[in-house]
Amino acid sequence: MACSTASLAATLLAFALLFQACLAGRRLTALVQEPAITMKYHRGALLSGRIAVNFIWYGNFSAPQRAVITDFVSSLSAPPAAAGQPEPSVATWFKTARKYYANSKARFPALYVGTHVLDSSYSLGKRLTDGDLLKLAAKGAPSRAINVVLTADDVAVDGFCMSRCGTHGASPRSRSGRFAYVWVGNPASQCPGQCAWPFHQPVYGPQAAPLTPPNGDVGADGMVISLASMIVGTVTNPFGNGFYQEGSADAPLEAATACAGVYGKGAYPGYAGSLLVDQASGASFNANGAHGRRYLVPALVDPDTSSCATLG
């Protein structure tokens, strides 16, 4: 089941506009660098084998927006050379999550793009609850799947912008199986300064110029950051008893969310770190993806070093 939004009290500090999450999501908080970040395995089941990533597009998404997000998922498990991903690549970034499986009996899952469900008619309205998100997620596969619900920029979701930018959780057990799910909202018109940073000026903290998004879409590129965090959280902690930092199980820090706001070396509150820049467009990125795409992905806790690892 998804983590309660009541456990996600957001903190806005004047010197930081950064993102964290519990099992339920990526949220705003201050960056606190610990000498060592230890992710403990709580002995729960992990995903393994071939896992379909199914998309439920709720509301209006353009074809280019869908391509940006779908190509990101395609980049996760594809061999960099075969997928045309020069280093640093999304696939190499995702390999850090593989290290967690060395401490379990499960085999690291092979993710692949599954089905697409388009719900442009807003079948559940334009204001959604956590229960609605689960209903939408159920439109994907009933098992061996991560069903990703993506809501358009005119859809309000409980807690969106106030305490979270995305969530992940799992369906209840049933005879047909159990699926993991992710929700991410498009922040372009509701809270770009919160959920699309560093591609938009923050609401609080240092007011440095925003970075140019690598795919030219503040909302879609912001969604990729949240989606990346939530997919890693799903793979390493799919049912709430996998890998997370010791503390409250209701609001655990996971492999990506423990490194909130860190994208490159030298990052600090209000500064995303040293990134690559496309000389033609001026866009900032840190990972190459499939089909010539470029993305900004969050740092992940490397279990070998107990620290936030960045590409490059």
TrEMBL record:
Cellular location(s): Secreted, Extracellular space, Apoplast
Signal peptide: 1-24
Protein name, UniProt field: Phi-1-like phosphate-induced protein
Keywords: Apoplast, Secreted, Signal
Family, per entry: Belongs to the EXORDIUM family.
InterPro entries: EXORDIUM-like
Organism: Setaria italica (Foxtail millet)
Transmembrane segments: none
Pfam family, one: Phi_1
A GO cellular component entry from the record: apoplast
Top-level division of the source organism's lineage: Eukaryota
